[in-house]
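Need C-alpha cells for this chain, all 497 residues.
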Amino acid sequence: MNKLQLFFLLRKNAKLNAKRNVMFEANQYGKLIGYIVLAIFAIEFIALGTFFGWLAAKEATPEMIFYFIPFMLILDFGSRFATQQTPMMLVKPYLLTPISKYSAIECFLVQQLLDSGNLVWMTLFLPYTFIVWCGGITGWTAIGMLCLLHLMVLVNSQWYLLVRTLINQSIFWWALPAIVYGSLVLPFFVLSDKQLDKVIDAIFDMLGNYAFSWWSFLFFAVFFIALFAVNRYMQMHLVYDEISKQERTKLKHVSEFSSLNRFGQIGEYLKLEIKSTIRNKAIRTRFIQGVCFITFFSLMIAFAGMYRSSFERNFFCLYAFVFFGATNLVKVMCPEGNYIDMLMTQKENILTLLRAKYYYYCAILLLPVLIQLPPVFMGQFSILMILAYLFTATGPVYFMLFQLAVYNKQTLPLNDKITGKNQMENKWQAIVSMTAMFAPVILVLILQVFFSSETAYLVLIVIGLSFTLTESYWMRNIYRRMMMRRYDNLEGFHSTR
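Here are the C-alpha cells for all 497 residues:
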C-alpha cells in the first residue's frame, strides 16, 4: 500500500469513526454553529479583499496585501486556538498495525493541511487578486500571488501546531510565541517616533521589494518543510509517550486540606475539585492559561489604553469572571463519567457533588476580582461594574452552565491531550457558552441606552443575587432532572470511556 492509498484509507476510517461515535448526531449542532460563524467571517473577508484590491489597483501596487499579511498571520495564529484541535489525528488504533507509524503521522499532518479551515483566508485573497488582475497584472502573476499567500497560511498552521503541542506539554512554552510576537511590538515601546518611522519605512521597502518574489517563495517553502519535519518527529514521540502512559512523577507531600473537614461531605467533594485542578494536567493547564489571559487583558486595559469602547470594556470584564466556568463547567459531570456508577450508590450524592462544584467555582472568582483591580485603580472599571459581573457569573451564568449536567453524557479523559478529542458533544454546550459570553453584555448595553451605567449594573446585581441566593432550589431541580435521565446518561458515559 503506497502513501496515497494509506491517506485515503485513514481519511475514510476517520469519517467512519466519527459517524459511529455515540455523540455524532449531537456534534452536528456544534458544527452548524461553526459554519454560521465561518460564513459571517467569509462575508467580511470578501468585503475587505475587495476594498484592498480596489485600493491596490488604483495605486498600481499589487503587492500591497503583503504589507498587511503579518497582521493577518498573527490573527490567524490566535484564532486557531479557538477553532482548531491539535493535532487532529487519531493515531492510537494504528500503533499496533503493520503500517509505518511515521507514514500514518504524515498522512494525518497532510490531512490537517487540507482542512477547509486553511481555505478561509481565500475569501480575502481571491477577491483581492481578481481585482488587481483586472487592474493590470498578468494571470500567471495573480496565480503566483495566490499560491504564495496560501503557502504563508500553511506555514502558519505548522507553526501553530508546533507551539500548541509544546504548550500542551508545559505552560512555560508560552514564552516562545511571547518572544516571537513580542519582538514585533517591542519597537513601538522602546523607539522614539523618528526611529520608529525609519524602521517602518525600512520594513515596508523590504516587503515591497522581496515579499512577492522568488526569494520569498524559497524562504517559505524551506520554512514549511522544516516545520513539517519537526512536527512529524514531535507528534510521533509524544503520541508514543501518551499511549504508553509514561508519567514522570515525583513523590511529594500531599495536603489533606483538613480545614474543609468541617463541611462534611461537601468538604470532601471540595477537596476533590481542588486536587483535580492541581493534579490533572488538562484542568491545570486550562486554569493557568486562564490566569495568564485575564492578567494580560487586565494590564492592557489598565496601562496600554486598549479596549476603550463600552462593549470592549464590558466584554473583557465579564470574560474574566466567566472564563473558568465556561472552559470547565461546560463539560460538567464529564470527568465524573469515569466513576459515575459509584456516585449513584448513595441518595443525593450527585446533588452534594454539584453544590460543591458550585461553591468551588464561586470561590475561584475571587482571583479575577484581584486581577481586575488595576483597571479599577486606573479608572477603566468601576467597583459597581466588577460586582455586577461577579454576581452575574455566580448567578445566571452558573445557572445556565450547571443545566448542562442534565444533558452531558460523554466521559472526559483528564490527561489525554494528543490523541484525545475536545469537541462540543451536544447543541446545548455551544448555545449556553455563547449566551453566557454575550447575553449579559448585550443586556447592559441595552439598559445603558435608556438608563445610566450605574442603573444597568444595579439591575445585573439584582438579577445575579436572585439566582445566587436561590441556588439550593434550582440545583435540586437540576438533580431531579438528572435522575430522570440517569439510565440514558449512564449508557453514554459507559460507551465513551
